[in-house]
Amino acid sequence: MSGVEMPAGSRSESLKLVAVALVVCLFGALMATLLTRAKLQDGLSQIVEARVLAAGRELARSVERAQGLGLNLAELDTLPALLERHREVDPLIGSIDVFDEAGHVIASSDASRTGATVPEAVRAVADRAGETPWSALLDGERVAGVTLRTGFGLVIGHVGLRYAEDELRQAMAAADRRLLPAAGLAFGLAAAVSVVLVALLERRKQRARREAVQWPFALACLLPLLLAMAAFGMVAREAFSEQLTPQAVRKAETLGAGVAGLVDEARHAGFALDRLYGVDGALAELRARNPEIASVSVDDLQGRRLYGDGAEATGGGRALVALHDGAGDYGQLAFTIDPAFVSGMIGEMAIDVVVVLIVALVLAGELVRHAIGTGRQAADADLMRIRAPVFTFILAEELTRPCLPAYIGQLASDGSGTVAPLVVSLPIALFMLIVALGQPILGRWSERIGRRRALLAGALIGAAGFAGSALAGGLYALIAWRAVCALGYAIVFSAGQGYVLEQAGEAGRTRGFAVFVGAIMAATVCGPSIGGILADQLGQRAPFVVSALLCLVALAPMAGLARGARVAREAGARPEGMAGLLRLLANRRFAALVFFAAIPAKILLIGVLFYLVPLYVGELGHGQAMAGRLIMLYGLLMVILVPLAARHGEGFARRVALVGGGLAAAGAGGLALVSLPGLAGLFALAALLGFGQALSISAQSALVGELCREEIATLGVDAVYGAYRMIERLGNVAGPLIAGILVAGGGYQGAFVVLGAAAVGCALLLRVSLGGSARALAVPQEARG
Amino acid sequence: MSPLAPLERSRPGGGRRRFLSAAGALALTCLAPGVHAQARRPVRIAVVTYRGRTRVEDGFEAYLAARRLPAEILWHDIDRDKARLPGVVAEIRRQSPDLVYTWGTTVSLGVLGSFDAVDPARHIVDIPAVFTLVADPVGAGLVPSMASSGRRVTGVSHMAPVDAQLRAMRAYRPFRRVGLIYSPNEKNSRLVVAQVAELGRREGFELMARPFPLDDAGRPDGSGAAEMIEALAADGADWLYLPPDSYLTTLAADVLARAAERRLPTFASTEALVKAGALTGVVSRYESVGQFTAFKAEQILYGGRDPASIPVETLSRFSLQVNLPVARRMDMPPPLAMFDYAELIDPEAPA
Question: pLDDT for B288-306, tens place per residue?
Answer without folding.
Answer: 899 899 999 999 999 999 9
